[in-house]
């Protein structure tokens, strides 16, 4: 069955970097549009980044453009979110999602604080 498992979250200081991973099983990430969302306390879940099949196209929320990069490693069947120059407002639980069938991972907490 389809499973998505996020990892890589943690506590960092402003300006630092993190790389989130979304390990997929039950399907091949290269054949699906994959997305990263985040949800901060008291806020709605928001789309952060998207990568289309075969990595032809990537899109980002304005708030992370130029700082975050979504990518995939087909050999590892994993999607990544490289997050640089982190800000306190990036603090949230980050989720990986496969559009087809609306599958979500369990989320990984990212906290940016001095």
In round numbers, the mean pLDDT is: 96
- The count of strands amounts to 11
How far apart the termini lie comes to 40 Å
Estimated helix fraction:
under 10%
Helix-strand blueprint:
Blueprint: E1 3-7, E2 10-12, E3 18-25, E4 34-39, E5 46-51, E6 58-60, E7 68-73, E8 78-83, E9 92-98, E10 103-104, E11 108-112
Parallel strand pairs: 2-11
Antiparallel strand pairs: 1-3, 3-8, 4-5, 4-9, 5-6, 7-8, 9-10, 9-11
Short description:
The protein has 114 residues and is an all-beta fold. The protein is built from no helices and 11 strands.
Walk me through this protein's architecture.
It contains no helices and 11 strands. With 114 residues, it is mainly β. The strands form 2 sheets. Strands 2, 4, 5, 6, 9, 10 and 11 form a 7-stranded mixed beta sheet that branches. The chain has a 4-stranded antiparallel beta sheet with strand order 1-3-8-7, with no helix packed on it. The mean pLDDT is 96.
List the main descriptive attributes of the protein structure presented here.
mainly beta, 0% helix, 50% strand, 114 residues, globular
